[in-house]
Write a structure and sequence with these properties.
- This protein has helices spanning 3-11, 14-43, 58-68, 70-81, 83-102, 114-135, 141-173.
- It has 184 residues and is mostly helical.
- It has one domain (3-173).
Length: 184
């Protein structure tokens, strides 16, 4: 077990879960809701953030950057460099604590660190988005492709993390709380 996984084991309890859960809820309920409304207002039309798009489409990402307009691009970049620096830390710790609590009795549970792959790929995606937003009108297809790659890794690792949470919950509900993978 890594020192960081051991740290997660020490902090994984109901108080930490509740604390992180409350902070997590504030992001979609307040911070991102208001930021999204402001970006749309500054763009003069309803727009979506690049962060929440699915699929691999660098041309769409470049078109979105162009469509925001200068003030919306500047505000979106500031949002990425403030709110969206804190949010990945919060959701990664929340998911890691949930996984640790669900699989606490497993001897080999390095997968509880998977939410930090989501965090890293989210940060790399955000860096690419900020580069595109602040570099406009110059548009780099290379940066747009990297943004899409990081976004794809983020969504895939997030999806796997959610599947692990669901699996752990199914084990709990089925009464197999201490179920461990069998050796060979």
């Amino acid at each position: 077990m890594t020192p960081f996984a051991n740290f997660l084991t020490r902090i994984a309890n109901w108080k930490t879960l509740l604390f992180l859960g409350v902070i997590y809820v504030s992001f979609p309920a307040y911070w991102f809701k208001n930021a999204g409304a402001t970006i749309s207002q500054l763009a003069g039309k309803p727009v979506d953030p690049i962060d929440l798009t699915f699929g691999f489409n660098p041309a769409r990402t470049l078109a979105m950057v162009a469509g925001y307009g200068p003030t919306a691009r500047a505000f979106y970049a500031r949002t990425e460099l403030t709110i969206d620096l804190v949010y990945p830390v919060v959701y990664s710790f929340l998911l890691a604590v949930i996984l640790t609590m669900l699989f606490r009795h497993w001897s080999n549970r390095q997968f509880v660190l998977l939410p930090f792959v989501v965090l890293l790929s989210d940060y790399l995606e955000n860096a690419a988005i900020v580069t595109l937003l602040t570099g406009y009108p110059a548009q780099s297809m290379t940066v747009a492709v990297l943004c899409e790659v990081f976004k794809l890794i983020k969504w895939l690792s997030f999806g796997i993390t959610v599947c692990l949470v669901v699996y752990g919950l199914v084990l709990r509900v089925s009464g197999r709380r201490d179920a461990r993978p069998r050796n060979g």
